[in-house]
Amino acid sequence: MSTPSVFKWRHFLPEIILLNVRWYCRYALSYRDLEEMMAERGIEVDHSTINRWVLKYAPELDKRIRPNLRPTNDSWRVDETYIKIKGQWKYLYRAVDSLGNTLDFLLSAKRDAAAAERFLRKMLNAPHTQTPRVINVDKNAAYPPAVDELKADAQLSETTQLRQVKYLNNQVEQDHRFIKRLTKPGLGFASFNSARRTLRGMEAMNMIRKGQVQGVAKGDVRAQIEFVSQIFGLVA
């Protein structure tokens, strides 16, 4: 099998590159952890090289899983969590449906109505989501004007209900833990762009882990590995 074009001119086999990207985006490992794990297998690769692989292929992973995601339902839970970038806290908007399936995510420098509207609009345009019957949020004052603006644009149905009840969002707050656990070994990101690109891979692997890919069950690790290889053209 010829090397897929996305891996052309790389000095390592595509399988090695993808293994490192998948592990970094799935498990709480640092780049130096992966460097040592590769050395145990007789493969000499610097941690900075693995970092470049993740920045290159994590967004590709997110892009390639999108057409394969199962449809989500119309009950949304929307919240923000904090991500440290260059020593400063930024905002990661995240949302799940009532079954815990990831709807979408958005990294933002600000936590305001414009950011909330941008995130809601992104979810509405995602191919695996549907127009929400209800949107559950916390007491953040940014959401009502964002929802009003989307209804005025006819992006949201007038019947969509916005519920600002904090305890209803326990589900998405619990879901934050997986992403927060992955970001701890790196002790924050060096730039907004590197955070944005890396988080795309982490969120993609989280969706695969939760069984959101069509034909790939939750807990079926072998099928999940094969799926990632398939979408990158490494298996027939």
Automatic annotation (TrEMBL):
Swiss-Prot/TrEMBL keywords: DNA recombination, DNA-binding, Transposition
Q: In the record, what terms sit under GO molecular function?
A: DNA binding
> One Pfam family name from the record?
DDE_Tnp_IS240
The record, for InterPro entries, names: DDE_dom, Integrase_cat-core, IS_Transposase, RNaseH-like_sf, Transpos_IS6
Signal sequence region: none
GO BP term, example: transposition
Integrase catalytic domain: which residues? 67-226
Listed name of the protein: IS6 family transposase
